[in-house]
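step 3/5: co-fold with pyridoxal-5'-phosphate
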Amino acid sequence: MSLLAVAVGGRGVVDPAEPVLRADDEALLRGRGAFETIRVYAGVPFRLAEHLERLAGSAERIGLPTVNRLELEELARQAIEAAGELDAVLRLIWTPTPTSLALVSALGDHYDGLRERGQRLISLRGVRADEPWLLPGVKSTSYAVNMAAEAEARRRGADDAVFVDADGIVLEGPTTNVWWRRGSTLHTPSVELGILAGVTRAEVIALAAGCGYEVAEGAYPLEELAGAEEAFTSSSVREVMPVVELDGASIGRGPAADELQAALRQAALATLQQ
Ligand SMILES: Cc1ncc(COP(=O)(O)O)c(C=O)c1O
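step 4/5: write tokens
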């Protein structure tokens, strides 16, 4: 991650090399912080209100002080301006002390190439967060497991992972939601499985009908994904990203991923014109 700018609550924009956290902040000691990763298009964070809403929910669930949304919005504005990069990645972080941070980093230049080629995924056993203390739907700074899954996927020559539960039910990727298509139906795991309610996932659900697809949410075995006509992932940073391989077996390319990616970009453009 190439960090371009940092803004801190009570201080404003600081040098990215400056220390910004107390040593006893539990976001650092225990991974007990809440965060959001947001795509910035032409200097404007996409669906900022939805991300702040999810951040507030995550903070509440892990017992953090109430999120100061106005402050975070202002920090986001300052950090984006300081970064001077129109297309970028914004991270908002809220910790127990409380410390509020807005980080802006460069968008990797490999995503468009990956979209052209399509991703290779491997399935990995993950945890189905079906108890409140497993923090279903919470985006906390305890992401070491997610990062380890990504690393394992790369170690095995794939691009990313998809988690399945102990019964082989598809959950989500370490930083993505997962989708596949059969006919004109797009399938995606239900948020009732304890997965993150992706902001991009909600966007894809909203855009699907306009592209001629209906959406079905449920608990699906991995074979459903493996046997799909096409598959893709969704996330704020990677947007809609086709999948071409699962556990070494090919999955076909199809029109839905490209249509939804175009529709997502169109929606982002529409917000700039408001
Ligand atoms: C576990 C997990 N699932 C799904 C997503 C996709 O969510 P969004 O579309 O809000 O970026 C993320 C995003 O980082 C994630 O960490």
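step 5/5: annotate
The mean pLDDT is 97.
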